[in-house]
User: What shape does this take?
Amino acid sequence: MSASDEDHIATTSDERLVVMANQIARFFASQPGDAAAGVAKHIAAYWDPRMRAHIRAHAAAGGAGLDPIASDGVAALTR
Assistant: This one.
């Protein structure tokens, strides 16, 4: 297990969701097309509704730690 994996495990639920959203954002940033739309589509398709609700609430509370692409993707979920 790498140090980043250990950090991921040792965080709160919201922090884990931020890490996951940022990982998704990094992936879609490396692909052609609208990265934020890719993030939104991925989260809508694969995340549990409770996870989506938590990341939306986190974003609404300021979105600490969210990558700009992840933040834009989460914002697209709430539209």
The radius of gyration is 12 Å.
